[in-house]
Amino acid sequence: MKRFLFLAALLTLAALLFPVALYSLLPGEVAFDADVPSDHGPLRMKFHSTTHDEGCVGVEQYETSAIPNDTEGEVFIPDSIAFKGRNLPVCYVTRGSFHQCSRLTEVHLPSTLWAISDLAFDGCSALRRISFPASLGDIYPRAFIGCGALRRVEFCSAAPPRGYGNDTFDSGVYETATLVVPMAHAGNYLSNPLTYQFRYHAERIPLYNETQP
């Protein structure tokens, strides 16, 4: 009995001291690596899947990027990842997934994406363009903070995704980047807290599928 009580106390102490390590071992949480395309060839990216989510890009721990920080150029996140005989749709870009990947110039998001978490692209200082799929429902605060090189921000849906505050991007991005949306639905973006701050708006934005120089 004493041994059992000692073991229980030891596990409780470990849970208090090492919550991240224990969290990663929770039933239903599975982390794995998979190859994704990039303009420099196959790239290993960290994914995780849980019993309540169909598939997720990135990792939960903020300190760890989903790819090496020195990855440069373009990265393509696929719509689904094969894991244990199943094709899991990629639905989330989690917190800090691309933290300080300062040499990325573009990340191609999957058409299955539901949400981009806070600080997901924090410090991607060379990122010049981002295109959000029509499936995107939520962008959380400061998702693109530290991405001052952004010059083109594209939305493909009739209405913006839900935003939680007006600090999704660096303040300077609103002054220098071009907001690109379907022209027929421009009014939905100009009245939305997530996008109304862009200097280049309404009459100046081309159709989202228009060929650009």
List keywords for this structure.
three-stranded antiparallel sheet; alpha/beta; 213 residues
Report on the structure:
The chain contains 4 helices and 14 strands. The chain has helices spanning 2-17, 19-23, 171-176, 186-190; strands spanning 30-36, 43-49, 56-57, 72-76, 80-83, 86-89, 92-93, 103-108, 115-116, 129-132, 138-139, 152-155, 162-163, 178-180. The model is unreliable at 2-27 and 202-213 (pLDDT under 50).
- Indicate the structural class: alpha/beta
What's the total helix number? 4
Please count the beta strands (DSSP E, at least 2 residues each).
14
> What gross morphology would you assign?
globular
Kindly, what is the distance between the CA atoms of the first and last residues, rounded to a whole number of angstroms?
75 Å
Strand content bin: 25-35%
Order of strands, widest sheet: 7-9-11-13
**Biggest β-sheet description:** 4 strands, parallel
| Average pLDDT | 79
As a percent range, the share of helical residues equals 10-25%
Instruction: Return Rg in Å.
Output: 20 Å
Q: Topology as H/E string?
A: HHEEEEEEEEEEEEEHEH
Low-confidence stretches: 2-27, 202-213
Could you provide a short overview of the structure?
15% of the residues lie in helices and 25% in strands.
